[in-house]
Amino acid sequence: MRDAASFSQKEINPLQSIEQWEDDVLQRYPEPNQPAKAKEEYRNYNDPVRDTVREFYRLNHQYQSYDFVQEKRADFLRFNRKEMPVWQAMEFLNTLVDDSDPDIELDQLQHLLQTAESIRRDGHPDWFVLTGFIHDMGKVLCLFGEPQWAVVGDTFPVGCKFSDKIVYPEYFAANPDINNEKYNTKYGVYEHGCGMRNVTMSWGHDEYLYQITKDYLPEPALYMIRYHSFYSQHREHAYEHLMDDHDRAMFEWVNKFNPYDLYSKNPVPPNAKELKPYYEDLIAKYLPSTVKL
Ligand SMILES: [Fe+2]
Ligand SMILES: [Fe+2]
Predict the structure, then answer these.
(1) Which of 64, 131, 132, 263 sits most deeply, having the most CB atoms within 10 A of its CB?
(2) In the chain, how many domains are there?
(3) Which numbered ligand comes closest to the C-alpha of 138?
(4) Which metal ions or organic cofactors does this protein require, according to UniProt (predicted)?
């Protein structure tokens, strides 16, 4: 596997901002009342941003192999980098500045507050609101120098055949696992209906935050956090054969969460100062006084 130090700046940060990935997901899965772009139109759309996103996926699909994920887990799941209160971790996340246009892009904290506030407005339980608020906290990985394609992007199982329902599946041709007979069959290292808890997902902000919060939040919240970028399952149902009945029940929550993540982008930024006391209370109710990153 390539040493992280050997990646160029362009390979570490192919996107101008990590929001370019989310903007792209939004084009792929527009709001139900908006006309969907034809598949070909989506893929051929001639646009420099699209080329950037394509390059991001090329790197993601090439390097997210089973061994790569195991290495990232062994490193980051030691949680030996920082320890701080959750609100402070969100402010830390907000120091993630990139080349995006500050006039049109909401910052990380604003996206999280908007997601959470629309969940709150719909009268959902408070742990659901809290989940909306923290769901992208794992993006602090970027601040630890991680490549964008190991922080964001659609996630997918590793250790078995990559589904062609994953965006830009052709780029998996460069992934070493595609030639490894342990990993390149339909089930790979897994068994039929083994349950997602036994499946290793590609590495990114979803799995990282799940591991940080797994002892503290109700299970539906943990599913939302862990699988919110797993579009090839929650939108395309490509990995039904690995799921068990419990997963199927829990993915109802993932489906419930997804529209809040994708469609609650309001141009009016929420007032973080005003909302802080409410969210500090929610954090105190469910999470420990500090988290280890
Ligand atoms: Fe996310
Ligand atoms: Fe998000």
Answers:
(1) 131
(2) 1
(3) 1
(4) Fe cation
